[in-house]
Amino acid sequence: MEYHPEQLAAKCLQEINQKIRNLKKLNIVILGKSGVGKSTLINSVFRENLAKTGIGRPVTQEIRSYTKPDFPLTIYDTPGFELGKEQQDKTKKEVLELIRNGASSDDVNKAIHCIWYCINVGSNRTFDSFEEAWLREFTEENKITKVPIFIILTQACPKKKALEMQKLVEAENFHISKVVPVLAQDMELDEDYTVKAYGLNTLIDLMTQVLPDDLQDTLQNVQKASLDAKKKRAQAIVAGAVATAFGEGFVPVPFADAAMLVPTQVTMLASITAVFGMNISKSLLTCFVSSTIGAGGATILGRTIVSNLLKLTGVGAVLGGTISGTTAGLLTTALGEAYIKILEMIFKGEMRQEELDTPEGKKKIKDLFLEFLKKNKN
Ligand SMILES: Nc1nc2c(ncn2[C@@H]2O[C@H](COP(=O)(O)OP(=O)(O)OP(=O)(O)O)[C@@H](O)[C@H]2O)c(=O)[nH]1
Ligand SMILES: [Mg+2]
Q: Within 10 A of 213 (CB to CB), how many other CB atoms are there?
């Protein structure tokens, strides 16, 4: 079997699209008084500006949902929370109804997966007695429905005040998952002093802890606040692909069939791309494939992969006409890690995709691949 880098890149793109289309939908309810920083938080955590540009669709009299086509996230916003007890009671009833309807549908895409209850640190001493009573009742009711609840202390500046408030709220012993202080955007106190944003990483880590398995890829796809969390998920994908490439029971891969590995690696690249949530061009994928497992941009044969590997690193001994599972695993690891590194550079804005489609860019990819081959050899 033969592969051209272009064909592989096309196959990869196809799998990326399919993967993204199949992501389960994440649904979050956000609560809190007007001006506490709900929209700012949402727009800092997720890669689409849902709060500003999403189209709000009335779900009930009070609740609106924000979503975008081909973006697996819905935010349920509940305006009017500051309008007093009557309004808050109404909101409570409607949110609980929303949760129950989702749960009874037995469809993960319709369930409510998390609740973010926002309290502003900046303008509050602590939270008022209405809110306290509301949370008391709501969290009691939720003991049955068991949706994870985070109390997010927004605009958490100064930090000291945020920590004091965190202690106060924690002392209430609500049935919730966590109290998290967050400053979603840098806060300029005066000309000389700006407090840096913090806490978003922690929020993402906590989300990964409470969400079920089938929403982990979705979370990483939609969030932009934690590169570390994306990388961790991507590395788990590589580990899975390596296990597949390695073969069950250490079965050696026949020398001539090393190309069998390629579908596993294509799937791995597609899954990593979905986790990063970036639009990767076909030319970047072609570049990547031809600069790593491809033989100088021509065709890729199992034979080429293995002999390249031997030539480049002196590993991957061919024993009795087979390459070992170890070699196959090594190749897959290096490919995955090099790809993660490249997406990381693009994510950070250190490099543009087009820059990789140049002789220097290709050399960079190749060097990265070799570096990871050598690093993982031992
Ligand atoms: N610097 C800084 N400003 C913030 C932060 N969060 C909120 N703000 C500011 O606080 C104001 C209110 O924030 P929003 O995000 O609009 O609040 P909201 O909860 O969505 O308000 P409603 O939509 O009216 O319910 C805006 O001027 C924001 O710029 C933050 O983390 N850092
Ligand atoms: Mg808002």
A: 7
Residue 93 CA to ligand 2 center (angstroms) comes to 21
Contacts 24+ apart (CB under 8 A), 83-92: 84/130, 85/130, 87/62, 88/130, 88/131, 88/134, 90/61, 90/62, 91/31, 91/62, 91/63, 92/134, 92/137, 92/138, 92/141
**CB-based pocket (< 6 A), ligand 1:** 32, 34-40, 154-155, 183-185, 187
Q: How far is ligand 1, taken at its centre, from the CA of residue 104, in Å?
A: 34
- Ligand 1 mutation target, pool 31, 36, 40, most atoms within 8 A of CB: 40
C-alpha–C-alpha distance, residues 320 and 276, integer Å: 40
For the CA of 188, the nearest atom of ligand 1? 1
* Nearest CA residue ID for atom 31, ligand 1: 184
- Helix axes 129-145 and 85-105, enclosed angle (nearest 10): 10
- Per-residue pLDDT of the chain in tens (378 residues, 90 and over written 9): 456 778 888 989 999 999 999 999 999 999 999 889 999 999 999 999 887 655 566 676 778 999 998 899 999 998 888 888 888 899 999 999 999 999 999 899 999 999 999 999 987 666 688 889 999 999 999 998 999 999 999 999 989 999 999 999 999 999 999 999 999 999 998 889 999 999 999 999 999 999 999 999 999 999 999 999 999 999 999 999 988 877 643 444 444 444 555 788 889 999 999 999 999 999 999 999 888 876 433 334 445 555 556 555 555 454 444 556 777 788 889 999 999 999 999 999 999 999 999 999 999 998 998 899 888 776
Q: Whose CA is nearest to atom 1 of ligand 1?
A: 187
Q: Cα of 368 to ligand 2 centre, how many Å?
A: 43
Give the number of whichever ligand sits closest to the CA of residue 31.
1
Domains of the chain: 5-19+227-377 (no CATH), 32-222 (3.40.50.300)
Q: The pTM is what? A: 0.90
